[in-house]
Amino acid sequence: MQLFGEAWAQKYCQKLNESEAYRKAATTWEGSLALAVRPDPSAGFPRGAAVVLDLWHGACRGVKAVEGEAAVNLADFVIEADLATWQEVLEGRLEPLTALMRGLLELKKGSIAALAPYAQAAQELVRVAREVA
User: Fold this and answer.
1) Taking a C-beta distance cutoff of 8 angstroms, is the pair 26, 58 a contact?
2) How far does the chain reach from its first CA to its final CA, in angstroms?
3) Please, what is the Cα angle at 3 between 115 and 107, to 5 degrees?
4) Number of Cα atoms under 13 Å in the Cβ half of residue 108
5) Residues 26, 18, 106, 87: is their CA dihedral positive or negative?
6) Helix (H) or strand (E) run with residue 37 in it
7) Contact 122/77 with Cβ under 8 angstroms?
8) Got the DSSP string for 41-53?
């Protein structure tokens, strides 16, 4: 299953809906979030890719895998990094907050202030993604 591919995206949404911890942490979250990988032809992402999640009150209502910059137009928040950084995050070798502070993960769309109240939900998003990766 290719990371950021359609099958991976569908499995991720399914796992989010099965997670009681995510449901509780994200009860007030409303909006869409994209996890995007920068273009890297050598890794199979010539135009980049993203998983766009439709998240609503602790549920994943839908998900779409897209190529290129499409995620910026489809999501309220876009978090982008190179493939190596995403792999470190998803393997548990790098914490997302640390990666954001170091500039390895970039909030390409949206604001940190708007995301701050959902820190616990973000942690659960990553925990669940680690189960899929």
Assistant:
1) yes
2) 8
3) 25
4) 21
5) positive
6) strand 30-37
7) no
8) GGGTBSS-EEEEE
Phi-psi region of 44 (alpha: psi -120 to 50; beta: other; left: phi over 0): left
Q: CB atoms < 10 A from the CB of 4, how many?
A: 21
Q: List the one residue out of 42, 32, 38 whose CA is nearest residue 4.
A: 38
- 33-82, pLDDT tens digit by residue? 999 999 999 888 899 999 999 999 999 999 999 998 887 889 999 999 99
- In angstroms, rounded to a whole number, what is the distance separating the alpha carbons of residues 52 and 14? 14
Longest distance between any two alpha carbons in the chain, whole Å: 39
* Rg of the chain over all Cα atoms, to the nearest angstrom: 13
**Helical H runs in the chain?**
6-18, 20-25, 70-74, 83-90, 96-101, 112-115, 119-132
- Six-digit token pair at 121? 């939900």
Query: Tokens in use for 21?
Result: 């911890």
